[in-house]
Amino acid sequence: MAKTQKTEEERLDKAAKKAMKDSVTEGKRTTNDLAELSKFFCGEQAVLNRSDIHFADYNPREIDDEHLKTLKRGIKKYGLVGGIVVNKQTGNTLVSGHQRLTVMDELQKYDPATHENDYSIRCDLIDVDEKTEKELVIFLNNPNAQGKWDWGRLRDLVNPDNYKDVGFTDADLSMIGVDFAMPTVGDPDTAAAITQMILPDIVQPIAPVAAAPQVPAGESPAEYEAKKQHMKDVKAQVQEQAMQRAADNAAYIMLSFDNFTNMQDFLAWLDLPADTQIIKGEELATMFQDMDEGGDEGDYENE
């Protein structure tokens, strides 16, 4: 395996040298003319065996199966684009790239327990203490340190051939105002209805289009009906998601007491901090259930 890794490093080194040699511009400018590398670049490029890298067990980021499938689809099409960051000072702890490496393990059929089907991976190797490492795990994934969509430009970039490859669903398209996946033939008010339902304060309703022929030229009746059905399915999906979000937003109740002392006694009875203002209903139910099963309900008195 060491020989394989060395061979891979030699290949990458030759490729890098060739790229540097070939990197000339129209004016015959070469890498010899490049300015000094910025001091803000840290770490170094390295090739490590997958078995030498371990996940940060404290990583606060998670991903569900559906989004993992989307990531896997993108990696299969575009390859592993973007840096995998590893900290050598803490034994090659993964700092950035947990979800991508999870997908790579699946694609390579790698077994973390036995290291079967081990493979090498190119990464950015940094050398920082554990405190800095944990800060970077947060910073490199923090939405507050990232940009946001320019919806107009995004609509111009997305097209029928690539929207799933770049990670969007049919429901996403309606939210950013792209309607090629939802033809309005035979139901011109659908796009406007969805827009009004999802983004009433952000996007102005889409004006209904003029009545179209029953079956557009160049389109078979079967294709026409398929598009109509697709449009209805997407509308139903968006409506269902909107209703679920509305229901989830209303999933709370308010608990009131006659006076402050009664509230304090109640919190003390449950062994909760005196300044508790919000508690998950599921957590409260578990506490009551534990009391019931343990037979030790204690005394709760109020004034």
Describe the protein's architecture and organization:
The chain is α+β, with helices and mostly antiparallel strands. It folds into three domains: 2-21 and 39-145, Conserved hypothetical protein from pyrococcus furiosus pfu- 392566-001, ParB domain (Alpha-Beta Complex), CATH 3.90.1530.10; 151-249, no CATH class; 252-303, no CATH class. It has ten helices and four strands, in the order H-E-H-E-E-H-E-H-H-H-H-H-H-H. A four-stranded mixed sheet has the order 1-4-2-3. The termini are far apart. Mean pLDDT is 78; it is low at 23-27, 181-188 and 200-205.
Describe the secondary-structure layout.
Layout: H1 2-22, E1 44-49, H2 65-78, E2 85-87, E3 93-96, H3 98-108, E4 120-126, H4 130-139, H5 151-157, H6 170-176, H7 190-198, H8 221-249, H9 260-269, H10 281-294
Parallel strand pairs: 2-4
Antiparallel strand pairs: 1-4, 2-3
Helix pairs in contact: 2-3, 7-8
Quick structural overview:
Helix 2 crosses helix 3 (98-108) and helix 7 (190-198) packs parallel to helix 8 (221-249). Helix content is 44%, strand content 7%. It is α+β, with helices and mostly antiparallel strands and 303 residues long.
